[in-house]
Amino acid sequence: MKRWEADGNNDATYDANALSADTIVVGKDVLLRNGFCARGVVRLVGAKVGGDLDFSKAQSNAMSLHLGDSNVGRLIDDTASWQDLRALYLDGFVYTAIFGEPDESNRTEVKARLLWIKKQQPKPFRPQPYQQLAKVFRESGREADAKRVLVAKEWARCNMVACPAWDAPGACFCI
């Protein structure tokens, strides 16, 4: 398949297990944008997309998005397209670049992307989404942002570690 498009302009609204495209192979772009709305689960688990995954201006308030183990070129989205997702699964999701809202400062974008990662279920701890985001920032020359992401990854990991019962209150720390 060369290109796959389902945007709001085409009245693409799906129900229940809304869209299941596990292991799909698309040579160019997957466009789920411009008012795309799904009431249920959108699955692209293990998908291989040769071009962009465009999720910009999607309506996500009744949607769960599963991108685990998928591989795309660029991820194109905006904060509004994912902030209301019911669930988000990113473990194993690989992308080469991110294009978000053009008016965002780098610091704002880092904070927004960390909130994006935190949309996942918290347990078990999944380091790959943090490492992938840091890699993309580093490869685009944003070393300081990559470091912020990796520090956030360690804080998230530490929050998952239970302190031994014999530790005094406040004595547990993460190195």
- In spatial order, strands of the major sheet run 1-5-9-11-13
Helix fraction bin = 25-40%
Number of strands: 13
What's the story with the biggest beta sheet?
Answer: 5 strands, parallel
Poorly predicted parts: none
Name the average pLDDT: 85
Rg on CA atoms, Å: 17 Å
Report strand %.
15-25%
Give the overall form: globular
* Spatial gap, N to C terminus: 47 Å
Task: Characterise this structure.
The chain is an alpha/beta fold and 175 residues long. It folds into two domains: 1-103; 104-161, no CATH class. It is built from four helices and 13 strands. The strands form four sheets. It has a five-stranded parallel sheet, with no helix packed on it. α2 runs parallel beside α4.
